[in-house]
Amino acid sequence: MKPREAGERAVRRVRALVAGRQARRHGLVGRPELWQLKRDFQIAFLRAQGLEPGDMLVDVGCGTLRGGIPIIDYLDSGSYVGIDVRAEAIEEARRELRESGLEHKRPELIAAPSLGSVELGREVDYVWAFSVLMHLDDERLGECFEFARRHLAADGVVYANAITAELPPARWREFPVLSRSVDVYRAHAERAGLSLRDMGALADLGHLTGLAHHDEQRMLALRRI
């Protein structure tokens, strides 16, 4: 084999390995073919709601930083905290951060089995929980809302999407997939000391996958009472 051919084969092998690793990483947070669309939607939505570089944001269920990378890039250094229950996802998130050249932004990435055990020691302007609430049973949902109430600044806000259509319970990886009505979410929020506003369907906010069970989810905004 000629040196040029050997070099080209080596390059193809490396590219295949990188592509395979990225596909595995993307698969940890949902359907890989929707990965870029959902990444773009998150930063666009948050900026449309007024997110500024100096704001402090907590990304609950940050996964492998599908949405986190552009958010970290936009925010000032030290202004992003990502939390996920899966240590595997956080390890992949650290690789994604390094490969994106954003370690200098000093985000805090936390693997925690329960939000009830997480104390950040500071108030935050935004709690972002994208594609998270539908994977939480009632106990975990209560912990999520309590975490938000403990950490939100007086004028802070939680944004989280939810499945509200009546669907049979299902599973995705190790997590349940649960649907609840907006009123049920509101009751959980009020027990935690939060008010809730239904902002409408994701499709109306720019989330257009062409898949009803994605685009018809509702975006919820929660604030301290």
Write structural notes for this entry.
This protein has helices spanning 3-27, 35-48, 68-74, 87-99, 138-151, 182-191, 212-215, and strands at residues 57-60, 80-84, 108-111, 124-129, 152-162, 170-172, 175-177, 194-201, 218-224. With 225 residues, the chain is an alpha/beta fold. The protein has a single domain (3-224), classed as 3-Layer(aba) Sandwich (Rossmann fold), CATH 3.40.50. Strand 4 (124-129), helix 5 and strand 5 form a beta-alpha-beta unit. Helix 2 (35-48) packs parallel to helix 3. The longest helix has 25 residues, at 3-27.
Main sheet summary? 7 strands, mixed
Q: What order do the SSEs take from the amino end to the carboxyl end, as H and E?
A: HHEHEHEEHEEEHEHE
The neighbouring-strand order within the major sheet is 3-2-1-4-5-9-8
Unreliable residue runs: 14-20
Round the mean pLDDT to the nearest integer and report it. Answer: 90
Overall shape: globular
What is the CATH topology? Rossmann fold
Cα radius of gyration in angstroms? 19 Å
Give the CATH superfamily. Answer: Vaccinia Virus protein VP39
How big a fraction of the residues is strand? 15-25%
Count of alpha/pi helices: 7
**Second rung of CATH, namely the architecture:** 3-Layer(aba) Sandwich
* SSE-based structural type: alpha/beta
SSE inventory with pairings:
Blueprint lengths: L2 H25 L7 H14 L8 E4 L7 H7 L5 E5 L2 H13 L8 E4 L12 E6 L8 H14 E11 L7 E3 L2 E3 L4 H10 L2 E8 L10 H4 L2 E7 L1
Parallel strand pairs: 1-2, 1-4, 2-3, 4-5
Antiparallel strand pairs: 5-9, 6-7, 8-9
Helix pairs in contact: 2-3
